[in-house]
Amino acid sequence: MKEVTKFYKRFLFNFKKKINLDTEVIDDTPLDVLFNHFGTDKGTEVVNPYSLNSKEVHGHGFAKFYEEELRYYKNKKLNILEIGTWEGASSAAFVNYFPNAIIYCIDKNFRFKFKSKRINFLNCDINNKRDMDRFSSKFHNIKFKIIIDDASHILSDMIKSLKSFFKQLDSDGIFVIEDFNAPVYFDVLNDVKGEELLINDLLTNIKKKKNLSPIFYLIVIKNIYLKIFRMLKFLKERQKFRILLS
Ligand SMILES: C[S@@+](CC[C@H](N)C(=O)[O-])C[C@H]1O[C@@H](n2cnc3c(N)ncnc32)[C@H](O)[C@@H]1O
Prior knowledge:
It is built from nine helices and nine strands. It is α/β, with parallel strands linked by helices. The protein has a five-stranded parallel sheet with strand order 7-5-4-8-9, with helices on both faces. A two-stranded parallel sheet has the order 1-6. Strands 2-3 form a two-stranded antiparallel sheet. The longest helix has about 30 residues, at about 215-245. S-adenosylmethionine (SAM) binds near residues 42, 84, 85 and 107.
């Protein structure tokens, strides 16, 4: 029955009118302005996107972090995966911020309201095996430079995302888990007490290299690789600089 309903929802979704991002290209705009423009709470001044009645203006102010960490990739040809897109506001901002990126968007609901030649939306619940098989059969050979988990912020879901998608992260890629400490503050989000490490403890263990399963050793290796990669780039840039100066 659930599958029939989903089939029906997918059918309706395909016919739903969407906002075409390819007709309005916003060049060289700071990420926070884009976040606010499209209305994701990653911005600083956004009307609560999850409530129809609220006029409350707020925002997490994540653009600073994203620009610092991701500026390096801005004009590169790359694939981005966003897990948990709601209506697609942050994906729309990323389409504009990364002019050469293809954004893969997954969400368990059908609220996505944008379209672009550079957006691939897939309705997918990461806890549904059929959905995840569909994701794999469509995208298993895609490597992502950036993966952002902004889905439920439930600990088991964050771990699930890491385990499912980390293998598709490029060797010099970045895996972002938004609000990774939410299960520390909200007990209801820590649904696997004692069975899984909190992300914070996981990061501490990665630093201390203790109690890690193979997938998390992969994280360590990729992080080291990333640092070396950046260092090499930095040295090259310095060399160029020296040549210019001499
Ligand atoms: C915080 S909202 C995403 C906001 C969006 N990234 C933005 O910045 O505008 C969280 C989204 O995660 C989705 N989500 C929650 N659990 C999920 C799951 N198990 N699989 C896929 N999506 C999920 C919800 O449907 C919701 O749309």
